[in-house]
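TL;DR need structure tokens for one chain.
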Amino acid sequence: MSTMADVARSAGVSVATVSHVLNGTRPVLPHTRQAVLDAVETLGYTPNSLARSLVTSRTRSIGLAVSAISNPYFTEILQGVEAAALEAGYSLLIADPHDDPEHELKVVQLLHGRRVDGMIVAPSAEPGDLVAYLRRQAVPTVLLDRVLGPAGPEGGVVGQGPFDQVCAENSGPMAELVTHLASLGHRRIGLVAGLPGLSTTDERIAGYRQGLAAAGLDADEELVVSGSSESTGAERATAALLALPGAPTALVTANNAMTIGALRALRERGLSVPGDIALCCFDDFAWADLFAPRLTAVAQPSREMGALAVRVLLDRLAAPDREARTVRLPCAFVHRASCGCPEPRPAATKSSLESTSQSEKGTTP
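>> reply
TL;DR here they are.
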């Protein structure tokens, strides 16, 4: 196995020069740098990443903490993060906080202990201890999908502190689902909402209410039930909605896992979609068009969000003092037949939402 000394002899330079070329710790003349790189390729030299980290104080690794890695939504986010990290020459360490605040803190501390250069985290509904730790340790961090604090002006977020944030639009797309159902004549539209305390839950409930108001419908709080962001909770929530004296004629589920639970509850009661009840869902997923009827949904740009989170983190590592920013990506309305409309032709068409395509606090990456 070739060593750094072998590379130095082949290139006719000192070992220190080879180190500076490989670690980028000092400018080197172009022809000298090329001679070193040629020697590295010829000899098949592989740098010792541990030794390099001792020299540069960087491990070229990123910690990723997202819950429900088995959820297709987060799986697609993970694919985006992994591809962008690999392209930038970074490895990825992954942990699942299980949406539990205590476990969340433990896994983030574990990742930090592995000396990752920065972290990408989808925080839990109670992230106080996590936030305090990241601030105290000054860990470069991008919050993904879920943001801190209520929405501020121009897409910014109040109280985000030093953290950059990358997420999708939530309120506008949810409002569009509701107004679409209202345009089809529905006046009792139920919402199976996510886990209380998550920004995605709060923003989608706000969008649901905006959609009702835009359609001239009064909000009935009985029609909003928490499905806790998971299938079993959504099955119970759907059953509760169906048991109301004035049961909804249309239903919106606030994530893909809850869509499965809602469909299970409807099937157990022998109800057809959309014949007995219309259904729309927030989160498109790979098999949404395999159901009969195919599911009308809001599609989030999951992979793009993951890749953008990496780029925003790398910007933070390159400029630690830059202003924190929040970037929101647009979603797409995927019109199929579960809402009660005729099946679109061609099979699935997408139209851009009228929500703001991108807003951020600070500069656009």
